[in-house]
Amino acid sequence: MDDFKKYIRARVFIYIDDLIITSETPEEHLVDIDEVLRKIEIIGMKLKASKCEFAKEEIKFLGFILSKEGIRPNPDKTKAIDDYPQPTNSTDVKSCLGMCSFFRRFVHNFAAIAAPLIALTKKNTPFEWTLQCEEAMNRLEEALTSAPILAAPRLGKPFIIETDSSAKGIAGVLKQEQEGLERVIEYASRTLSKHKARYPAIELEALGLVFAVQKFRPYIDGAKCTIITDHAPLKALLHRKDLTGRLAKYQIVLQEFDVTIIYRPGKKNAVCDALSRHLPTNAITSVTMDNLQLDTVRQEQGLSPVTPRNCNMGIYDNGLRPHKETQCTGLTLLIWRKLTSLCVCFTADIRQYEFDAARPGLGGGSAFAS
């Protein structure tokens, strides 16, 4: 079949014994069909008329629906996911995730949405179907039944990649400008191991860039590509000569591609930050002391000396500086000028812990969940 395609002018796509002919206009389509049929006759191949369709504006192929608008999942295939019964063991969860993963390119931040389900498949994890698992299952079903139409890439033309990262996962969106509009080509995401989730912010964001370019390599290899990030320090990643460790390794990977990194504030990073529409983890909220894990706070304060510098409170309000500190029920409390109440000192080690503990009230997940 490869030799067959080599000697014809028409745009033909072949998968095993399936053959698709694509054309810009009806007139061109007739010419292309004639050329392909003549070639089939010459080499002695035969076609079954009942399996042939001609002049179709959209077709079902390999689980997808292809049309001039783009690519979308075949509803006949996603219906099996809608009808999938509630899993009763980790094997059922793996089966369900396998079906959903086939269409993951259509789901923005698939990995973060499916994180509760993925956790159930890990070794030595007891099976417990929680409310978070049920919500994740429902969100995947909803995302697949309302999946967007992805555009077909125009190879050789510039691409755009938007990336974002958090301690829960990394994700990227491949886009391309077509007819004056930015069209989405593919979504990609993955969860992080506990080790990688503890990377410093700059390394975490750089990891997101490397993941995206490697995932989209078949599209962007040899083409110009603009990478959009909401982490300004990454703009220098390609040109710094004094990098070491992981950043140096990431720099080498990125230099394989013809890419330009530009900064766009998170609030303007429309696609990747659309995640926060569903899970506003950066929203300001009030958390009562009853909701905090006070024992953990006490323990961490014992490990990390409490100082105004590591509490880092001064950045949140101009003029606020610690006046004195006191002890109460084993907790270190600071009294701040211009405030009439005591404040528990949260060092850098425990701020993230307590934010995660408070997060379920905001919908669960991280700033990278969609």
UniProtKB/TrEMBL annotation:
Which UniProt key words apply to this protein?
Endonuclease, Hydrolase, Nuclease, Nucleotidyltransferase, RNA-directed DNA polymerase, Transferase
Transmembrane regions: none
Specify the domain of life of the species encoding this protein.
Eukaryota
Occurrences of domain Reverse transcriptase (ranges) = 1-66
Class in the EC hierarchy, top level: transferase
InterPro entries assigned: DNA/RNA_pol_sf (IPR043502), Retrovirus_Pol_polyprotein (IPR050951), Rev_trsase/Diguanyl_cyclase (IPR043128), RT_dom (IPR000477), RT_RNaseH (IPR041373)
MF terms (GO), sorted A to Z? endonuclease activity; hydrolase activity; RNA-directed DNA polymerase activity
Q: Does the keyword Transferase apply?
A: yes
What EC number(s) does the entry state?
2.7.7.49
- SUPFAM superfamilies on file: DNA/RNA polymerases
Official protein name in the record: RNA-directed DNA polymerase
Q: Which organism is it from?
A: Cylicocyclus nassatus (Nematode worm)
